[in-house]
Task: inverse folding
């Protein structure tokens, strides 16, 4: 069965593109002021944070490099964080003695970012801060420091702008809420041909 058109299960658009872009420009300006005179390493957690990173870095005027790491906490089909995370891809560069800014799509229970902060702080960066586009504050299970926050959102599952539903729909330029009653997850290929 083909992947559903998102219109078939869209409940509402929570944050339209123009609001995302305006807020991201503000965050970039704030980061640029705070790190003035310094150099920065922006670390993106794959894959949800990719869109946010690329738009954010356009507004960061201090010299900065980027790097990527991947963590798994959600299995395909799952809607809740497992509360346990695994480092599936490490950074390519050393962070020791550098200013590091973690760029995340969303902080939900907080387990993912808490674990990443643990791992990275052992490497003795000069500083380690967190920038998240979305903060589902109501759902927090572990306390995590958030230095830059785009939007606080209600406790609803969201997709678009980097965030996926079973790995699809990350390309949408807005943050949306699905009507899960109308959503049909992609079916595994029963023929076993792929
Ligand atoms: P946490 O460990 O519970 O804070 O979960 C953080 C990760 O779960 C995020 O980086 C996302 O990958 C994923 N996640 C949490 N809430 C949502 C959501 O509403 N939509 C899509 N992904 C989500
Ligand atoms: Mg993520």
Result:
């Amino acid at each position: 069965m083909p992947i559903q058109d998102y219109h078939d299960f869209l409940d509402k658009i929570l944050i339209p593109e123009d609001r995302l872009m305006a807020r991201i420009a503000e965050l970039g300006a704030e980061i640029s002021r705070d790190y003035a005179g310094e150099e920065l390493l922006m670390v993106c957690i794959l894959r949800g944070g990719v869109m946010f990173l690329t738009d954010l870095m356009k507004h960061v005027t201090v010299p900065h490099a980027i790097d990527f790491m991947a963590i798994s906490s959600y299995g395909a089909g799952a809607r809740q964080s497992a509360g346990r995370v695994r480092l599936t891809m490490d950074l390519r560069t050393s962070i020791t003695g550098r200013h590091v800014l973690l760029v995340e799509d969303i902080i939900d229970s907080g387990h993912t970012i808490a674990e990443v902060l643990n791992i990275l702080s052992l490497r003795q960066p000069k500083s380690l801060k967190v920038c998240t586009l979305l903060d589902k504050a109501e759902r927090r299970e572990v306390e995590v420091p958030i230095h830059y926050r785009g939007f606080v959102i209600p406790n609803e599952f969201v997709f678009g702008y980097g965030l996926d539903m079973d790995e699809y729909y990350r390309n949408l330029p807005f943050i949306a809420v699905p009507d899960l009653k109308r959503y049909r997850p992609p079916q595994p290929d029963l023929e076993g041909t792929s």
